[in-house]
Amino acid sequence: MILQFLAKKKLSRFLGHSFSASYTDSSDDETSPRDKQQKNSKGNGDFCIKNIKQADFGRREIEIAEQEMPALMALRKRAQGEKPLAGAKVVGCTHITAQTAVLMETLSALGAQCRWAACNIYSTQNEVAAALAEGGFSVFAWKGESEDDFWWCIDRCVNVEGWQPNMILDDGGDLTHWIYKKYPSMFKKIKGIVEESVTGVHRLYQLSKAGKLCVPAMNVNDSVTKQKFDNLYCCRESILDGLKRTTDVMFGGKQVVVCGYGEVGKGCCAALKAMGSIVYVTEIDPICALQACMDGFRLVKLNEVIRQVDIVITCTGNKNVVVREHLDRMKNGCIVCNMGHSNTEIDVASLRTPELTWERVRSQVDHVIWPDGKRIVLLAEGRLLNLSCSTVPTFVLSITATTQALALIELYNAPEGRYKQDVYLLPKKMDEYVASLHLPTFDAHLTELTDEQAKYLGLNKNGPFKPNYYRYADVPFNPCLLHHDFIL
Amino acid sequence: MILQFLAKKKLSRFLGHSFSASYTDSSDDETSPRDKQQKNSKGNGDFCIKNIKQADFGRREIEIAEQEMPALMALRKRAQGEKPLAGAKVVGCTHITAQTAVLMETLSALGAQCRWAACNIYSTQNEVAAALAEGGFSVFAWKGESEDDFWWCIDRCVNVEGWQPNMILDDGGDLTHWIYKKYPSMFKKIKGIVEESVTGVHRLYQLSKAGKLCVPAMNVNDSVTKQKFDNLYCCRESILDGLKRTTDVMFGGKQVVVCGYGEVGKGCCAALKAMGSIVYVTEIDPICALQACMDGFRLVKLNEVIRQVDIVITCTGNKNVVVREHLDRMKNGCIVCNMGHSNTEIDVASLRTPELTWERVRSQVDHVIWPDGKRIVLLAEGRLLNLSCSTVPTFVLSITATTQALALIELYNAPEGRYKQDVYLLPKKMDEYVASLHLPTFDAHLTELTDEQAKYLGLNKNGPFKPNYYRYADVPFNPCLLHHDFIL
Amino acid sequence: MILQFLAKKKLSRFLGHSFSASYTDSSDDETSPRDKQQKNSKGNGDFCIKNIKQADFGRREIEIAEQEMPALMALRKRAQGEKPLAGAKVVGCTHITAQTAVLMETLSALGAQCRWAACNIYSTQNEVAAALAEGGFSVFAWKGESEDDFWWCIDRCVNVEGWQPNMILDDGGDLTHWIYKKYPSMFKKIKGIVEESVTGVHRLYQLSKAGKLCVPAMNVNDSVTKQKFDNLYCCRESILDGLKRTTDVMFGGKQVVVCGYGEVGKGCCAALKAMGSIVYVTEIDPICALQACMDGFRLVKLNEVIRQVDIVITCTGNKNVVVREHLDRMKNGCIVCNMGHSNTEIDVASLRTPELTWERVRSQVDHVIWPDGKRIVLLAEGRLLNLSCSTVPTFVLSITATTQALALIELYNAPEGRYKQDVYLLPKKMDEYVASLHLPTFDAHLTELTDEQAKYLGLNKNGPFKPNYYRYADVPFNPCLLHHDFIL
Amino acid sequence: MILQFLAKKKLSRFLGHSFSASYTDSSDDETSPRDKQQKNSKGNGDFCIKNIKQADFGRREIEIAEQEMPALMALRKRAQGEKPLAGAKVVGCTHITAQTAVLMETLSALGAQCRWAACNIYSTQNEVAAALAEGGFSVFAWKGESEDDFWWCIDRCVNVEGWQPNMILDDGGDLTHWIYKKYPSMFKKIKGIVEESVTGVHRLYQLSKAGKLCVPAMNVNDSVTKQKFDNLYCCRESILDGLKRTTDVMFGGKQVVVCGYGEVGKGCCAALKAMGSIVYVTEIDPICALQACMDGFRLVKLNEVIRQVDIVITCTGNKNVVVREHLDRMKNGCIVCNMGHSNTEIDVASLRTPELTWERVRSQVDHVIWPDGKRIVLLAEGRLLNLSCSTVPTFVLSITATTQALALIELYNAPEGRYKQDVYLLPKKMDEYVASLHLPTFDAHLTELTDEQAKYLGLNKNGPFKPNYYRYADVPFNPCLLHHDFIL
Asked: Which PROSITE patterns does the record cross-reference, listed alphabetically (chains A, B, C, D) (predicted)?
């Protein structure tokens, strides 16, 4: 059940990625990879992928991705001498794309051994998997796995004679779940879990609450840098992109209501305002509401403007934000879409009634037609617009991958006792380090503190630069929680 | 020594306030208030102010301020029935202005008794003090106190027969300091300290670190709402205002470098970019640096652009950010000013050398002239531009005052054990409440969660609405620290 | 030769349109329409199209377009009683799309008879042509005409027994050219030409200069409303759309140089600045250059920034703005594209040399690879990005079509002597009328002058509202040229 | 009667200027300058000013202004060799400020003889007048002239034995009016009039219409560059400045209605939107209305929003835009001000009724109080806010002064027949030249056309660069009107 939900969610994310990769896909034959016996050019057969012959093509994809992920390449160079992951045995379960390959080859360059499965049954780029297998990685993944294949691949990563993982890199929590269920004793040797997704992080916090988390876990999803890029900066661009690609709508003069003024909502509002739309905001949190006011948006209840708006965008992470009653009152041609964290924000199910006609007018675009002829334009059936109908820039993926690599290094090298059996946010210093590795992309030049200035501010010259109560925190200030040395 | 510094700092803030109030000032005679015996119309003489006859004029000032502080007025109404401050004896030390008077009369309406002194020797509005005295408040303050007067007034608030404070409201820490020094035993009955200023908060953390803090203290300065308004939103407007009032400079096409991209820097950059300036940013923190890049600013070292810019603005809170070497390289007519937290950001002392000529061309504006005729336009002698040369909107003061009132209520009513002898940030729920009280000003309508939605999100319908790791926090997530009931 | 150029230009425009229409295209058989004998359901066979059976599908397309072209629908209603085109025989040569069909049916509703050919050999929507033929229009056009077909179709529109056109609606000048060449005597009965394209207008001015223009012509291309929408507002959105669809580039933090700061450049710069790019501008005209400065852009020569920028955009209408020397100096991964009026702005020919490798990585996207591995990303081979790689919103097409309709009405109804054998811009009052017909789309409410105000301003209450020297004009003020009555 | 109006209007402008100059004013004695006999250090006494002893101080003011008027200084250098004004005898009537002095000394450097009076009885900077007299200029002006003084001064400029003007530089038309009335025969020798103000230009067009204009006149007011700077760019900044200086209002979240979306309205709207205000627009012209929509503003009628807005700004040039009925419906605290061309936009007279109380709360700020206690904040009594309550940047004055100088040169040197007895706009090429002289201020680098490009575009490499129908023109295209050589 949960798997189904995840598969759906990840599928749409994959569809996003595939915009850039689709022209490279090729489906050769119908035999299941599980029934084939393949070896790479060095005679190694410890993998299971679609077609090892696609390796060259996959290599080219990886090389192009390397150009756009300078931070990982820098990390390779900077940390290679000391091999901070020497001895690490990483089992991973993520989307298998060119960007992931750059991450895996970086981990390898830093000393780690890796075994990898896909976290989604549709998202594997077969050529990339081939290139990884050719390069000696034990990859178990292909595009179009069955549910049985999915768990089989994960099991093949974990259940190996003479090799036991000591680090987990997970995206969605399925790999972690599998080990908990099948091989709980493995956790004795595991030094930590790095988890990227909202869902996986949620599961970890639940484990922690229940007292069942038996190793430290790093919540990569909520790192400052990742959040800012996944949400504010990325959504600022993808809301425009997603709407244009699906509807060709002109933004100028359009009336838009954005539900929710968190980072995602802020990005959407800023972009649409800049393009000449008139934007209304709804909020439940008075602090975010006041920010919306100060940023120049009318704060309304949805009902106040639902009759007049041309576009409705949900960014709340909540459920049933737009319900049938709202949809009934929208005007002809109104576009409805979701940029939030779940696919429940728009009550799409309520539109599956006999008196309404659905007409698929384009990929990801449905007209829902009322008996009086009114048409509502529903995008991506209420799933995430930015993942379904636009693409995720490599730059954003680079930030995530770099954060994952650093989290692995931190957990693997942390002295005894630094991390307990709990879920941790990334130390701010590591967040700052991820950011610093991405500055050269912008030819940006950081200023260094003088000794005198550092002393005046009571800061280490190398950071971290902000107190942990910077901006959002309502726990007592406790500096002890903040400062400790960091491996790089 | 510290007092000197504070007096200077506060003086400039007062100058800001006085923009709106200066036409109401009148200096009647030269007798020291300490030598006069005055009584109000009810025969009460427990106060010491300039001239009780100015009460009517002060009352009008207070009434005008009430119109612009709807949140406090709402608080009066909402909480008046239950009188949450019944029994509270508040001793306060703040600027004494019409806005403060609205706060004091609110505290009184909620059940508190108040005695009050000024936190600055120049900032008292005499008419307002008169109106307060006429209304029965024990106020000890006038414009133009000597240092001896200053401490005498504070002492008169605290040292009373038959009355002992149980709450402290401080701005700068001088009142707290005085009680620590003179009447330490008073702390037995004191339930808590509410402190507003950066300096005062710093002193409290030092006390806490040294294990000498003997009551809970609330750091009002770092509440989300106050920070956003004092910094981002207020500076977005005051940077333009301060520059215009002093130099009449046209912003369009000007090249500007802003040192520091925290909230203050973000506000300055956004405003100047919007007015058509070309803005460069310097930063030491890579996360803020990356934000500057994504927001469209070239990130540079100061030396890279110092020769070409028309305006230099410091927003770092650091010292010696702009030094003589930079000033020597600036072009003729370059404007230099400071929006940061200290008056040390620009090394003004380095300009006090014989070869440079200073010419005061307008209030707060100096031309510093090099031997070759080059002129640098230095504003407010390097002190805070927005406090010296622009005004603080009442709306911002309203947010601060409301936060202070709520902090007093919270500390006074907190059950045994909720707060220990430490410095606390405002519970997020109170921050949210302050925000909600200010929404009607914008005719803003908040959306309420349905029961179903609240359950789905795992939130209380009345907030708080954000996890405590929202955006900036690097401590382990611990929900226990977050939720507790709140009096209002 | 000219035809070739036009076909190329128009092809790319068509490709833009087809984004929205491509899912409706179907190619049935290979027989040339010229070899088929088809009749509509009423037995009429005076047309030549691909397949009359597609009429129903085309009708649905037209109905959807009608919803988005409220101005033409309003014009139908408002002017229908008096039929201002009664007796008009309009021969037209434009793209044949659903939007054009709405125009043609409007002209018909206003009293005109119409015969129509396509102005481009690829741009006809066959289903729409079928719907028009079924509705009784004499349409001669299909997708994929040969050059011979192209002229044959035009000739079939013009050369009819017992029917002679008295109005020409042209897009590109080919129809006008054909009549000049083959049937010059027809001009005796022709009351005027309405021309939409830059190229066609240019040809008309040349005819006028040479003294060979024998009827009045209306330059619809340069109407204020059309210009603003085709250029500023449309490009503000399409630059982002075109770049995203082709390259998925993240705009935040990117350095961009925009060559030319006319309306197109202004739109591009505003959009990219709003998305967080750092934008440089080049200009030849000091007035536009000063505007760029005041709008916050560094004005540079291309050479100053060519090494550092991530994106180069040409918007000049000039030739060889970006030449091989610039391309040689760009950094790896630099994106190069053209938003200007010609395909000569980038010297693409200079890249067709043996040492450079071209790699087509996606539709409309080429990597040009230097011997050292440097890749330049060239979009649309230097043709117009917004027409090749994004779409034109129906709203923009609606403005053009409405303007064309009004121009026809004006020329057809103008009293003797109002227009001579010259090229005219649309009377401002008509421009204002086009604008007013589009205001309801935005639920926008215009204010009306009171009688007293109109008198005070010396204006007619119904406009025109601006003197003819408003903003850009350097001819003596001559009010006589301005005011005359207008038919609607 | 007209004079009264002008004096009022100019007075407010003067008040604007005086913001920067007020600290230099000194009033020495009460004797009328007409009763004093003064001589400069060279024994010359052909002037009448307040006090020749202030010359040194005035000289310093002029030198500071020179630094900020680089275009005039460049003009001096560039044209000095050939002295294009050799033989010119210019009589001028303008505000006499440091900026005007830079203009006068430039005219002199180019070969002209000048005699000058003030166009406003209050606006003369006495020290500057003294410096000019000391430098040999025949200046007749002082601060605080009577109406009789005003005309006496003008007469002393014109009515001189042995000297007759051949050029007029006027601001407001009073000088021109005086010569028409008293010395009409002078026009035989006068080569042209250069007029800067709206009012003066209006009078010239009326003369022209009536067939009474007997020399060519140059309308400097409507030059593109001046218009853009006086309106769009200057107002974008001065609306914020004017509101802040008078009311200290916080812009964020405020609801504002701007009446009129011409250049002034566009500037106001852009600035307020950027500061976080929610802006509504009213318009009578559908083209401007559509622009407002596309720029993201709700287009409304004033009545729709009058109850909810916090600020009302008029920018129409019309009368009675805000009337008593609107004022009655505004909410408590609403700020009302005028940025348009006349002081009639707000019907201030309607507020002078017995039931309303006026309270002057600050310079230029009145509270108008309704019987129920509602207060409206009226700024500058409805006169121009930006001239009354903010300052005009020297950069804007520099553009105007440079344009005046070039217009004089053009008219003085134009070959017989180029200009007839009509009112002319500045040739575009001169507009471009003014712009180019101001680019170095921004370190802006103009691109030059190659020969090949100029040929391709059909342009002269030195401009003009735009056809005369660029953007706003509704007269037939006539290239003959456009191109002619230009003296510089």
From this structure: ADOHCYASE_1 (PS00738), ADOHCYASE_2 (PS00739)
Secondary structure class of B330 (helix, strand, coil): coil
CA distances (Å), origin C7, targets A237, B46, C11, C121, C391: 34, 94, 6, 7, 18
Answer yes or no: are the C-beta atoms of D239 and D267 closer than 8 Å: yes
Q: Give the closest-approach CA distance of C127 to chain A in angstroms.
A: 16
Query: Residue A470 — pLDDT band, cuts 50, 70, 90?
Result: low
Q: Report strand pairing: B357-362 vs B365-369.
A: antiparallel
Q: Which residues of A are annotated as a binding site for substrate?
A: 97, 171, 196, 226, 230
Q: CB distance A473–B477 less than 8 Å?
A: no
- H helix runs in B380-478, sequence order: 385-389, 394-413, 428-438, 451-457
Query: H/E element holding B478?
Result: none
Query: Distance of alpha carbon A203 from its chain centroid, rounded?
Result: 16
Q: Sign of dihedral through CA atoms C111, C117, C119, C121? A: positive
pLDDT at D2: 36
What 3-state DSSP class applies to B222? Answer: coil
B274 inside 8 A of chain D by CB? yes
Cα separations (Å) of A137 from A47, A60, A132, A173, D111?
7, 17, 5, 22, 85
Looking at residue D192, its amino acid is: G
Please classify residue D234 by burial: count the beta carbons closer than 10 Å to its beta carbon, then call 0-12 exposed, 13-18 middle and 19+ buried. Answer: buried
> Among partner residues D224, D344, D426, which is closest to C471 by beta-carbon distance?
D224
Q: What confidence score (pLDDT) does residue A477 get?
A: 27
pLDDT at B289: 95
| C-alpha pair distances (Å), B342 with each of A387, A461, C30, D169 | 45, 20, 81, 52
- On average, the pLDDT of chain C sits at 87
Q: What is the pLDDT of residue A29?
A: 64
In angstroms, rounded to a whole number, what is the distance separating the alpha carbons of residues D286 and B63? 45
| First and final C-alpha spacing in chain B | 41
Q: Is B267 within any annotated ligand binding site?
A: yes
% residues pLDDT > 90 (chain A): 71
Q: Are C197 and C221 in contact (CB under 8 A)?
A: yes
**Half-sphere exposure of residue A291, counting CA atoms within 13 Å on the CB side?**
23
Give the pairing type, strands A423-425 and A217-219: parallel
Rounded Cα gap, residues D478 and B291, in angstroms? 52
Q: A426 falls in which pLDDT band (50, 70, 90)?
A: confident
- D169 touches D90 (CB < 8 A): yes
Average pLDDT (B327-354) is 94
List alpha helices for C110-194, DSSP H.
126-134, 147-158, 174-182
Q: Which one, of D284, A177, B338, B235, lies nearest residue C450 by Cα?
A: D284
| Beta-bridge mates of residue D299 | D281
Query: Could you give the C-alpha distances from D343 to D322, D337, D346, D388, in angstroms and in order?
Result: 11, 10, 7, 11
Q: What confidence tens digit (pLDDT) does each residue in C88-107 have? A: 999 999 999 999 999 999 99
CA distance A94 to chain B (A): 25
Q: What number of CA atoms fall less than 13 Å from residue C283's CA on the CB side? A: 30
Q: How far apart are CA A347 and CA A331, in angstroms?
A: 18
pLDDT digits (tens, 9 = 90+) for B51-72: 999 999 999 889 888 988 989 9
pLDDT, tens digit, 9 for 90 and up, residues C16-65: 333 333 333 444 567 899 999 999 999 999 999 999 999 999 998 898 88
Q: What tokens were used for A349? A: 């199910």
How many Cβ atoms sit within 10 Å of the Cβ of residue B368? 18
Closest CA to C394 of C138, C101, C24, C144: C101
- C39 to chain D, any CB pair closer than 8 A? The answer is no
